Amino acid sequence: MYASREDIGYDFGDDSKVGSKPIKPNPNIDGGWAWMIVLSSFLVHILIMGSQMALGILNMEWLEEFNQSRGLTAWVSSLSMGITLIVGPFIGLFISMCGCRTTTIIGGILNALGWILSAYASNVHYLFLTFGVTAGIGSGMVYLPAVVMVGQYFQKRRALAQGLSTTGTGFGAFLMTALLKYLCTEFGWRNAMFIQGAISLNLCVCGALMRPLSPKDLCEKYVVRSDSEENRAKALSHSTETIKSNGVLGEEPEKKEEATNEEVLGSVQHVEIGGKSGGGRSMYGLRLLKTVSQLTVSVRKGFALWYSSYFGAASLFTNRVFVAFIIWALFAYSSFVIPFIHLPEIVKQYNLSRQNNVFPLTSIIAIVHIFGKVILGIISDLPCISTWNVFLMANFTLVTCILTLPLMQTYVGLAVVCALIGFSSGYFSLMPVVTEDLVGTKHLANAYGIIICANGISALFGPPFAGWIYDITQKYDFSFYIAGLLYMVGIIFLLIQPCIQKKQPREKPTEEAQI
């Protein structure tokens, strides 16, 4: 369908400063400490996404404890899952200012606090605030950096690395379900949430493992990418050169600002050296002023990068393919979540509970989902295979399964469709790779934050919408049909935009762009 995954991408000037001198690759790129980053991200997916997939255990306990309606109680889990993804763009701001390591550690503390405070809940509305909002925001502050760091440390094997790290979701679904079921049986749901909060503090350890790459290391990664893709990359965007020139023009104020900040810090250091005879209080005040100045500089630079990604000359929204990617994300995730929520009820309606108790259909999805992520990641990393094409084929398979599932009324038929859903949904591991190909590593945090925000909206409203359709029609068939058709609309947007980009004439590169 398309020659290569680079054919869909914008360059946002990431490689504009690459020189012609060969630079020795950093051993931590695609190896060394990079695999520790994969391990850290794997554990994050177990503790965050795995726990959310196991919230059905706690949902049953909350129904018995508070005697509220199923719809109201289910919003606790929906809020936690939705907010984890919806806060993505704002977490991108934290990453720009503080870095992935600090953001993850703060998020781990916030997530643990949400679990612990929820153990003292007196009603469902209390859980909305403590578990839905507090733990949800903390989860979002951990999840996004875990994905971004893998993208920064890998170039040649990005899809495989993302696939391995995101398999933690499937493993976590099994581990956390068994753990929460055991803890609730032995100690009650309140103590179970308290213990789970203590376990969640291990997210801070995962954050400590996220050692940031130096600017020199990132530059070396860009050189490797430029050298390996020099003969293949043919940008579809007719405005690539314009974006590059905007980036060059935008660098001058930034350089001036940096020079001004350095002058301020230098003057503080000069006064500090010259005022050593002034006593301890003045020295302490000068050090405090220096710290505040450095913090101010970091915040201003981080906010400037975050703001320019959304509203600046090189805004992410000037990339039409990326905008189509956002529209796709608004419809896609609900098609994966809806079967997890409503399959048990469908099995009950078809009188298949006995077979489902032996081997639940949701477990089939989770198990095959693990293999799907790894296998699709390996296939995408092959030199002759386009990640974009693999991504589209997996989406076509998934939407076909969603539309076909209501037609299956036997356990074997449902099991086959669920297995295909689990395998094709392995494309989730390719989403960070496709996003990075679209916008570049520099904008990955903000761009992927937008994508998971759209996924969060889909996860928040998808299952309740399916339940509302069931209340009207007394069938789940139309819920899957409507979700599948909306999903197909998103896929069509992904197909149309690259074709439009190809038809647009390319401008002649300027001397500045060639340099």
TrEMBL record:
The keyword Transmembrane helix applies. One of its GO terms (molecular function) is monocarboxylic acid transmembrane transporter activity. One of its GO terms (cellular component) is membrane. It is a multi-pass membrane protein. Keywords: Membrane, Transmembrane, Transmembrane helix. The chain crosses the membrane at residues 33-55, 75-95, 102-120, 126-148, 160-180, 192-210, 321-341, 361-379, 386-405, 411-434, 446-466, 478-496. This is MOT14 protein. It comes from Chaetops frenatus.
